[in-house]
């Protein structure tokens, strides 16, 4: 659903930060090491309520390291699966992959988001700063472009939004090509100006498409039999555990080398987000008797649970502090030293099985230069659906299966 806690390094994103600097605090994405920014989880979380409303075996031989161009040409005939390598941005704040749109393909860096369903990026007609900071789609240069013209707009949980018009063209994801309705943004909120991504790639169900009746990429890939299995498998890497390398989205196949044991399948309770029942939360196998429906959301950076569950988890962590009322922090903090010293685990029970997140990953990002206290990777404030974001997914391989009875297969990730 895109709730991004950002940490953009000056070195990596110098040019983007120039744009960002023209939009002072308040329009900035909550979490940032830029000292001029107000860090505030609470604002990001509060806004949530406003919206509503591979590797198959073959591709092991042709592994694309992150950053290398993907040779889509080799897969033009369709092998039934397509892999998109991921770039890990800002110490696991967000991840993007490159998608080709139009004929010949124009590349876009998109944030794959299981918590929303639209695909969009800027159009060359858009001359706002946010648009100019990104790749813009030039319809005149695509022989397969088709006009649609319906107006389109979307808002996300972190308060960001974009609007424009709908169009249709060929979208090529790791060699899987479908004709797809896309949103061409003519306006986007300032949050996107500083984003390393050009736009989003929604992997949710079509029931939450911004424009009713629009089919998702997964819908189209399944209907056109472009993918062998009706699913997308997600491997999010972790800077702490594997240097943030090798991550990918694999459409139409499951990479059995990426997890330990068997996938546990969890039924989807509602088609919109990828919604599931979470029957408990645990700390070192001790039940915290906390339960909720939740979503597994690649577009949210952290794990966001109810206040009681966040308190129950942090109660077990020496040095954890609830600073949610401090406007400069707005959430739980934990000692940064946990990243190196903790052997503890938090777990979420789903489908009768516990899925772990090391407490080391709760030391998510330093509050300041001293590096003493860190924002926690688990935050409260979400008394509706809990959100198992990237902090969960980078520890658990997830297979989003859009079959007649949709389900999510989960197993501990193997680095
Ligand atoms: C990522 O984390 C490492 C280790 O804590 C730190 O040195 C580095 O500056 C961080 N990078 C970013 C982009 O925040
Ligand atoms: C873009 O949206 C903002 C409000 O979010 C509005 O003030 C501005 O006029 C819009 N720009 C264009 C070009 O539509
Ligand atoms: C879009 O986001 C901007 C910045 O957060 C906000 O000022 C504006 O009101 C939003 N527009 C819509 C239509 O939600
Ligand atoms: C999810 O939990 C609710 C409430 O406990 C229950 O009624 C429902 O049957 C559960 N659904 C699935 C698919 O387990």
Automatic annotation (TrEMBL):
Enzyme class (EC, first level): hydrolase
Source organism: Linnemannia elongata AG-77
EC nos: 3.4.23.21
Family according to the record: Belongs to the peptidase A1 family.
Protein name listed in UniProt: rhizopuspepsin
Single biological process term from Gene Ontology: proteolysis
Region (Disordered): 60-84
InterPro entries per the UniProt record, alphabetical: Aspartic_peptidase_A1, Aspartic_peptidase_AS, PEPTIDASE_A1, Peptidase_aspartic_dom_sf
Keywords: Aspartyl protease, Disulfide bond, Hydrolase, Protease, Signal, Zymogen
Reaction it catalyzes: Hydrolysis of proteins with broad specificity similar to that of pepsin A, preferring hydrophobic residues at P1 and P1'. Clots milk and activates trypsinogen. Does not cleave 4-Gln-|-His-5, but does cleave 10-His-|-Leu-11 and 12-Val-|-Glu-13 in B chain of insulin
Cysteines paired by S-S bonds: 126-131, 336-374
Signal peptide interval: 1-21
Active site: 113, 297
PANTHER family documented for this protein: ASPARTYL PROTEINASE, BETA-SITE APP-CLEAVING ENZYME, ISOFORM A-RELATED
Peptidase A1 domain boundaries: 95-411
UniProt GO molecular function: aspartic-type endopeptidase activity
Superkingdom: Eukaryota
């Amino acid at each position: 659903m895109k709730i991004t806690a950002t940490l953009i390094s000056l070195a990596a994103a110098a040019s983007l930060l120039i744009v960002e600097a023209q939009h002072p605090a308040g329009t900035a994405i909550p979490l940032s090491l830029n000292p001029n920014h107000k860090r505030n989880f609470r604002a990001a979380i509060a806004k949530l309520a406003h919206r509503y409303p591979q590797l198959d075996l073959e591709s092991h031989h042709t592994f694309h390291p992150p950053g290398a161009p993907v040779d889509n040409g080799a897969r033009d005939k369709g092998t039934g699966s397509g892999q998109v390598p991921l770039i890990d941005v800002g110490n696991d704040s967000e991840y993007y992959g490159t998608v080709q749109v139009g004929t010949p393909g124009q590349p876009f860096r998109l944030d794959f988001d299981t918590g929303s369903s639209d695909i969009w990026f800027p159009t060359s007609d858009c001359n706002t700063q946010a648009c100019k900071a990104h790749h813009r789609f030039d319809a005149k240069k695509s022989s397969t472009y088709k006009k649609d013209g319906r107006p389109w707009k979307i808002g996300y949980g972190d308060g960001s939004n974009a609007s424009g018009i709908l169009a249709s063209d060929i979208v090529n994801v790791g060699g899987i090509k479908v004709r797809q309705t896309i949103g061409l943004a003519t306006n986007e909120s300032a949050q996107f100006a500083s984003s390393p991504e050009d736009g989003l790639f929604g992997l949710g169900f079509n029931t939450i498409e911004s424009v009713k009746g629009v089919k998702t990429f997964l819908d189209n890939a399944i209907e056109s039999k472009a993918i062998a299995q009706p699913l997308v498998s997600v491997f999010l890497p972790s800077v702490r555990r594997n240097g943030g390398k090798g991550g990918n989205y694999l459409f139409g196949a499951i990479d059995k080398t990426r997890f330990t044991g068997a996938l546990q399948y969890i039924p989807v309770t509602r088609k919109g987000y990828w919604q599931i029942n979470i029957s408990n939360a645990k700390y070192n196998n001790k039940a915290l008797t906390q339960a909720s429906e939740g979503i597994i959301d690649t577009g949210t950076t952290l794990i966001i649970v109810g206040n009681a569950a966040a308190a129950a988890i942090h109660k077990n962590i020496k040095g954890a502090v609830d600073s949610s009322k401090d406007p400069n922090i707005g959430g739980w903090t934990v000692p940064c030293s946990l990243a190196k010293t903790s052997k503890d685990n938090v777990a979420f029970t789903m489908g009768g099985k516990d899925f772990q997140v090391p407490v080391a990953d709760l030391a998510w990002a330093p509050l300041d230069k001293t590096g003493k206290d860190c924002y926690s990777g688990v935050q409260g404030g979400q008394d509706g659906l809990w959100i198992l974001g990237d902090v969960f997914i980078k520890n658990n391989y997830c297979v989003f299966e859009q079959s007649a009875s949709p389900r999510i297969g989960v197993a501990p990730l193997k680095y």
